[in-house]
Amino acid sequence: MYYVAEVINDECSKYNCKQCTLFCPEPNTLMYNDEEHHAYVIQERCKGCALCVYVCTNLLKRNAIHMIMPEVHAEK
Amino acid sequence: MSYKIYKINEELKDFMPKEIIDLEEKATWGNPKRGVMDLPYTKELIEEHSLCAGCPESMALRYIIASLPNPEDTIIVNSTGCTSLVFPHIALHTVHSLFGNQNAVASGIKRVLEWRFPDKVKDVVVLAGDGATVDIGLDCTLQSFFRQEKITTICFDNEVYANTGGQESGLTVKGHVFKMAPKGKQWDKVPMWQLAIDSGCHYVARLTVSSPKRVEQVIKKAIYVAREVGPTYVHLYTPCILEIGLNSDDGLDEMRARDKERFAFFEYMTPQAEEVINRIKEEGLL
User: Fold this and answer.
1) In this structure, what CATH number is given to the domain that contains residue B148?
2) Structure confidence by residue, pLDDT tens digits, A18-67
3) Is the dihedral of CA B158, B163, B167, B169 positive or negative?
4) Minimal Cβ distance to A22: which of B39, B46, B251
């Protein structure tokens, strides 16, 4: 497995920008939950490019996404 | 084609993959006001594909497919290149042409559709790389402009033949060195947007894909003008991060840098095109 993006919900919900969802190169991977006001990552689709981290941290200085090593459970 | 082809038989619904069910329930069909701001919420008409992680071309494809005003009646013609890895994963009619023939194939499709469906609006959009548009297919591309074919041509310019190992193309910048061009290119980059203007295109734009909303506006203008007036051309900078030695999260930074120099936003339109654009703005479609 490789690193994938994860949204820090409490940080993300302070803003209403959705920029990461637009700049992600993968379709239907970074989506937005309007009820809870934060973006979320469908990790099975994430290729780990970290472009969303660049947008959120370097460009917008919001630090609401980080890369993590996901827990993978082998199918029995 | 009608988006009703994605209507799933209720009895079979339990067996269908979630992605297909989403195409029926969450995709934006039949709405000319669809655009990039739908991306965070709706099912995209493009599925998981095999382009590299962080590829700017992949971003461009998301914005273009999300901006098509009439996706259910749009036929996409593509050619050999990285983009051809994506088209099997798009829920629209796509035609893969021989390398360089894309504008000739699109011309034929457009003419037949006008004859077969005279009462329906059918958009034909060509999506091809710089090799197909400017090197191998320059003849077919320019001839379609000369003939005033009502098609939209979109060129993904990554300034190199990326998926064959890095040979220089007509759109490579003078002096650039690639793996298969070790001496560096000796001639200037072909100003394709200028050739398109001189060859009779009614709407021409040159930009990077660093601004999703701007890409949406340009694509919509190009398609509406092509529908009514004549050929349109959009030149998009989508750098190949692997061939120019960047990390997967550097693509956007590279495009923002080029926004200020050789890919500064440029737009040209003829008076007829301007008339169409002003009208669709008044109708709230832009």
Assistant:
1) 3.40.50.970
2) 999 999 999 999 999 999 999 999 999 999 999 999 999 999 999 999 99
3) negative
4) B39
Q: Predicted ipTM?
A: 0.94
List the structure tokens of A21. Answer: 């969802």
Q: Encoding tokens for residue B103?
A: 């504008």
Token pair for residue B75? 């036929």
What range defines the domain where residue B228 resides? 3-282
User: What pLDDT, on the 0 to 100 scale, is given for residue B163?
Assistant: 85
Entry pTM: 0.95
Which chain A residues are within 8 Å of B53, Cβ to Cβ? 25, 47-49
Distance CA B18, CA B30 (A): 21
Number of structural domains found in chain B:
1
Instruction: Please check whether residue B52 is in contact with residue B69, taking contact to mean a CB–CB distance below 8 angstroms.
Output: no
Write out chain B residues lying below 8 Å of A26, CB-based.
Answer: 48, 58
CA dist A28 and A56 (Å) reads 18
